[in-house]
């Protein structure tokens, strides 16, 4: 299916760069072989992850708590060696690894974007600024030894060459080591018609079926999984070398559930395409109606996801006047492709619009709690998803 010409989701830009903006065709497809839903064309990762990367994991308090709990869970369940070594792929600003660092656990974060890697170091997280692949894994093994846990959060779906990761993980893990990652769950994207999870950085949307198929050739099996509410519905997958652990009942349950939901069938994705088109038409009609009534409409949070929504629906600043966001690097710039101005959060707070489009719908609970006053003063929330 096609979402048309798309800019990079996090390429917030200045006016002077409008004419040289980069676009590619956002065209995902379902692979009947490995069961991933994946992009057919992905821009060069070096164009996405660099010294000015705009996504900092720490912007949400909910995520800070989530990663604290994640670290406790890993330590209790899987770190039974006396001096364990934990490695994270795509460690961003250190939001997860700092919890291991604070406990004096040997750790290493691999993060290709220099600006976020620097923030991680400031939080005491040992960080290498590199792309992770099998070559780097060999160096890590020589320097640090085998890993008891290799972690990744919202990162595996970013990496085009999963074969290199499979090889690297099977090279690096101790015999009882675990590879644990979480990512937006394909089942939720289909259920919620959350097509905004599809953008340049998300090459893959995984399911339990897909993860099983991808890592089988590397002697790794799925031993456990846990549903997470983060990022609008995610799955945490735990893999280990074959026959090292009992397979938890959660794995068989999820595989059966996916069969009943048709995640392995092309027809399901044909229906998803129709649902996306319907969602686009309904959402833009609602915005047009509100605009005809003379409403001021603002976007709440300039998320990566919003880039897909705005460009697919062709929503420009005649419909959404501005988007407010708490990230300094995005403020004063314009949204990729549709060039809606990004203002600091205070602009929203000091001058409520009639309607706020909640682009960070995955943080709804946290945002509704702190923005109760907006609705009390008559403000209306809108999303392209039924929440
Ligand atoms: P997220 O949904 O994690 O983004 P993405 O789609 O890029 O994965 O939201 C992060 C963005 O939302 C970030 O730019 C900061 C912004 N944000 C706010 O402006 N206010 C908020 O209350 C929250 C939670 C996020």
Summarize the model shown.
With 387 residues, the protein is an alpha/beta fold.
Description:
- Strand 8, helix 6 (162-172) and strand 9 form a beta-alpha-beta unit.
- This protein has 14 helices and 17 strands.
- The protein has 387 residues and is an alpha/beta fold.
- The strands form 4 sheets. A 7-stranded mixed sheet has the order 7-6-5-8-9-12-11. The chain has a 5-stranded parallel sheet with strand order 15-14-13-16-17.
- Helix 5 packs parallel to helix 6 (162-172).
- It binds thymidine-5'-diphosphate.
- Thymidine-5'-diphosphate is lined by residues 55, 59-60, 301-305, 325-327, 330, 345, 360, 362-363, 366-367.
Topology:
Elements: E1 5-7, E2 23-25, E3 28-30, E4 37-39, H1 45-48, H2 61-78, E5 85-89, H3 98-101, E6 106-110, H4 114-122, E7 127-128, H5 134-144, E8 147-153, H6 162-172, E9 173-184, H7 186-192, E10 204-205, H8 208-215, E11 220-228, E12 234-241, H9 249-261, H10 266-292, E13 297-300, H11 304-313, E14 322-325, E15 342-344, H12 345-350, E16 355-358, H13 364-370, H14 372-376, E17 380-382
Parallel strand pairs: 5-6, 5-8, 6-7, 8-9, 13-14, 13-16, 14-15, 16-17
Antiparallel strand pairs: 1-2, 3-4, 4-10, 9-12, 11-12
Helix pairs in contact: 5-6
This protein binds thymidine-5'-diphosphate.
Identify the notable features of this structure and list them briefly.
387 residues; alpha/beta; Rossmann fold; seven-stranded mixed β-sheet; five-stranded parallel β-sheet; 21% strand
């Amino acid at each position: 299916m096609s979402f048309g010409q798309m800019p990079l989701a996090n390429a917030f830009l200045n006016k002077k760069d409008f004419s040289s903006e980069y676009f590619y065709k956002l065209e995902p497809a379902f692979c009947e072989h490995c069961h991933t839903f994946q992009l057919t064309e992905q821009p060069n990762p070096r164009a996405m992850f660099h010294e000015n990367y705009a996504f900092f994991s720490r912007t949400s308090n909910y995520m800070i708590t989530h990663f604290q709990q994640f670290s406790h869970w890993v330590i209790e369940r899987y770190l039974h060696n006396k001096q364990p070594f934990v490695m994270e792929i795509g460690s961003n600003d250190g939001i997860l690894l700092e919890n291991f660092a604070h406990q004096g656990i040997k750790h290493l974060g691999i993060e290709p974007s220099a600006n976020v890697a620097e923030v991680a170091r400031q939080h005491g997280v040992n960080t290498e600024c590199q792309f992770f692949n099998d070559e780097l894994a060999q160096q890590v093994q020589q320097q640090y030894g085998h890993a008891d846990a290799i972690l990744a959060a919202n990162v595996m779906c970013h990496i085009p060459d999963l074969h290199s990761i499979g090889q690297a993980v099977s090279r690096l893990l101790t015999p009882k080591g675990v590879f644990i990652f979480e990512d937006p769950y394909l089942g939720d994207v289909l259920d919620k018609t959350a097509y905004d999870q599809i953008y340049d950085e998300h090459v893959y949307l995984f399911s339990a079926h897909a993860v099983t198929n991808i890592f089988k050739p590397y002697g790794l099996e799925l031993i456990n999984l846990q549903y997470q509410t983060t990022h609008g519905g995610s799955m945490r997958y735990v893999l280990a070398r074959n026959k090292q652990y009992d397979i938890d009942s959660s794995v068989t349950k999820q595989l059966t559930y996916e069969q009943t939901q048709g995640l392995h069938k092309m027809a399901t994705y044909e229906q998803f395409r129709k649902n996306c088109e319907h969602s686009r038409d309904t959402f833009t009609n609602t915005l047009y109606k509100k605009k005809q009534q003379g409403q001021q409409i603002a976007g709440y949070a300039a998320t990566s996801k919003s880039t897909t929504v705005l460009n697919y629906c062709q929503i420009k600043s005649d419909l959404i006047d501005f988007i407010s966001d708490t990230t300094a690097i995005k403020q004063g710039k314009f949204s990729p492709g549709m060039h809606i101005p990004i203002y600091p959060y205070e602009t929203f707070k000091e001058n409520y619009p009639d309607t706020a489009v909640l682009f960070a719908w995955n943080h709804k609970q946290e945002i509704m709690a702190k923005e109760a006053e907006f609705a009390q003063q008559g403000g209306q929330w809108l999303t392209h998803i039924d929440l």
